[in-house]
Design a protein that fits this description.
666 residues, alpha+beta, 7-stranded mixed sheet, 4-stranded mixed sheet, 13 strands, 8% strand, elongated, SEO_N, Protein SIEVE ELEMENT OCCLUSION C isoform X2, membrane
Length: 666
């Protein structure tokens, strides 16, 4: 049976009008590109002559994503196949069936309509031809082919398979053009209406041709079943031969018509893509100078070029409209490393986080090490995007190359680094790299602007809070209890053992002192003490020091005004462990004093010698007193007995050292 597929004699405007009347998308989204890859893999395998080497597919049909749809992908394909596999008698009926399929697919976008129909084609021919291909090595497959009235000898199907393969390739190529056009950000730019109108019209007609051609292919299934039956007489064989030539001619005609359409449509889509890229580039160049009412235009420009649902949080799809009136932190990086985990801890898990966390969101934009994403990079992205609380670009490998190049060229993003670009609620970029301020202050840095960073440095000086807040898990508790803290570090394990031993004796005197040791090794003295040794705390501590140094360098610039924080941080980062045994930082939450390691242990020995006479002093106070020279002459201070009972320690007015207590009788 011949199905006329050339619509040149028909009024294309009428067909387009009918197609548009049946087109009523409801927002559902199908990953048509991934599904088409699977369809192409299936059809290329079952339609080839040599199947001794199976085709390896990178994807899996179960990984094809469908969002906001009331039906699953297998159910949709099954529902469509019911209509497509019904016999059609003549051109009029196949035309009517084609339009009925568009009514059935009205909720889907144009690319999804074409791909779903090709999915039916792949499922049907895959199920029919796979047993034929496997029959030569699998008796069970041979039996299935025989029961389905299919020829086991593939040579009988070769002419038909060749023409069908040509048609399938043409349908796939045309569908790729439709997908590419559907992903163009037409709404984000202003193109020539005439060019867009002609391209849209051809997209509608191309979808129509793909659906109608797929339907025509399925109508030939009874024909190649007859190949097995009509071999008994010469007359039947001659009739079969004529039917085969007719079927092959029909498929070839459909294929050449689609090839011609593909050439025309592909050029139109490329022209639209070129114009869009030029306009997008111009918009990106003006992105920092234009005034916006909110952040929506900028977010759509950056992320919605190829997708209406470009973002996700865990497995939930995020629409850009959900981010309106929020400060956006754009995190550009390769797959996560330690600083990024700390960043999340600072912004999501920090104890001091309040309702301000509802007013901002992190959007992770992973940038691969090369132009093409590897399978390993995709797996790493899937793991982290589904495990961490940030929002991420849903399929970053689909991110426009124009946008990625913009990040590298205009924002100076470099490989093997991470940066956080901050956009306020009005779509203005207020900080081109807030990574350091977030690593230092976490949620306190909200709204993460350069101005806020300046304010924070005006408010904060060299203190334990600057060094440990958000890093050490017990810091908040220590601050509430008013305990003093001593951070110390050294590569000299003998010195560390001595320091820990002295610190334990001082603690036994009643000093409320907590120790934080920063080194790569745990010493014997630490094994016997309660000092918390955490490699994570150590890494985060040095990471914060580096962030403080970078932040200060940006602010100090060429200024020669001394900066205590910068000087102290530089000393620690450049500390010469060969020339010095170690270092220590002592203080409470809002205070901190840096002391050379040898001087620190020398003073701690003196405190131990004072024994119970040092009770009542704070550790920092005792260290400072121990640094002073003692009085050359002894002297006595008389304190009434009742007063002496309430005063735990009496210090010398001159050297501030604790004085020995004696009871005198008069």
């Amino acid at each position: 049976m011949i199905f006329r597929s050339d619509i040149s004699a028909l009024n294309e405007d009428i067909i387009v009008e009918q197609l548009l009347r049946s087109h009523d998308p409801d927002g559902r989204w199908l990953d048509s590109e991934m599904l088409l890859q699977e369809v192409e893999t299936i059809l290329s395998f079952v339609l080839q002559n040599d199947v001794s080497r199976p085709v390896v597919t990178e994807n899996c049909i179960t990984n094809v994503q469908v969002f906001d749809s009331k039906e699953t992908l297998p159910y949709a394909i099954s529902r469509i196949s019911v209509q497509m596999l019904c016999p059609c008698m003549g051109e009029n009926e196949i035309q009517s069936r084609t339009m009925a399929l568009f009514d059935l697919l009205k909720e889907y976008r144009w690319d999804a309509k074409a791909v779903l129909v090709l999915g039916v084609l792949a499922a049907t021919f895959g199920g029919l031809l796979l047993p034929v291909h496997l029959a030569f090595c699998d008796p069970v497959a041979a039996s299935i082919a025989t029961l389905n009235q299919l020829p086991i000898e593939r040579t009988k199907l070769r002419p038909w398979l060749e023409s069908l393969r040509l048609l399938v390739k043409a349908m796939v190529d045309v569908t790729k053009c439709i997908i590419k056009f559907e992903r163009l950000p037409i709404k984000q730019v202003q193109l020539d209406n005439n060019i867009v109108g002609k391209t849209l019209s051809n997209v509608y007609l191309a979808t129509y041709r793909v659906v109608k051609s797929a339907l025509a292919c399925l109508q030939q299934i009874p024909h190649f079943k007859q190949t097995q039956q009509a071999t008994e007489t010469r007359k039947a064989a001659r009739e079969l031969s004529m039917d085969t030539r007719r079927a092959v001619g029909e498929l070839s005609s459909l294929g050449y018509q689609l090839l011609s359409l593909h050439t025309r449509l592909n050029k139109q889509v490329e022209d639209c893509s070129t114009q869009i890229e030029e306009e997008i580039n111009q918009k990106l160049r003006n992105i920092n100078t234009e005034t916006h009412q909110d952040n929506q235009d900028v977010l759509h420009l950056l992320f919605s070029l190829q997708d209406d649902l470009p973002l996700q949080q865990y497995s939930r799809q995020i629409a850009i409209t959900e981010l309106k009136e929020k400060v956006i932190l754009l995190l550009l990086s390769q797959p996560p490393v330690e600083p990024l985990f700390f960043l999340l801890q600072q912004l999501y898990d920090h104890p001091s986080n309040t309702n301000t966390e509802q007013n901002y969101e992190i959007i992770w934009i992973p940038i691969p090490s090369s132009q093409k994403w590897t399978d390993e990079e995709k797996e790493i992205f899937d793991f982290y995007s589904n495990s961490l609380p940030w929002i991420s670009v849903r399929q970053p490998w689909l991110l426009s190359s124009t946008i990625v190049n913009f990040f590298k060229r205009e924002w100076h993003y470099g490989d093997d680094e991470a940066m956080v670009v901050v956009m306020d609620t009005n779509g203005e970029f207020v900080n081109m790299n807030a990574m350091d301020m977030v690593l230092i202050w976490g949620v306190q840095a909200y709204p993460f602007s350069v101005t806020r960073e300046d304010e924070l440095w005006e408010e904060h000086g060299w203190s334990m809070q600057l060094l440990l807040d958000g890093i050490h898990p017990a810091f908040e508790t220590w601050v509430k209890q008013g305990r003093e803290i001593c951070i110390f570090g050294s590569e000299n394990l003998d010195w560390v053992d001595e320091f820990v031993s002295l610190a334990r004796k001082i603690q036994n005197l009643g000093f409320q002192l907590e120790l934080v040791y920063l080194s790569n090794e745990r010493t014997k003295a630490m094994e016997e003490s309660s000092i918390l040794f955490s490699p994570t705390v150590q890494q985060l501590f040095w990471l914060r020091l580096e962030s403080i140094e970078r932040s200060k360098v940006k602010r100090i610039g060429s200024s020669k005004r001394p900066d205590l924080v910068f000087e102290e941080v530089t000393k620690l980062l450049d500390f010469d462990y060969g020339a010095h045994k170690g270092w220590g930082i002592i203080g409470k939450g809002s205070e901190a004093v840096t002391v050379d390691g040898e001087k620190l242990t020398e003073r701690m020995r003196k405190i131990v010698q004072w024994g119970e006479y040092a009770k009542g002093l704070g550790f920092t106070e005792a260290i400072e007193i121990a640094a002073e020279k003692p009085c050359e002459l002894s002297h006595t201070v008389v304190v009434p007995f009742q007063e002496a009972l309430t005063v735990r320690v009496v210090t010398c007015e001159k050297c501030k050292r604790p004085m020995k207590k004696f009871v005198a009788y008069q």
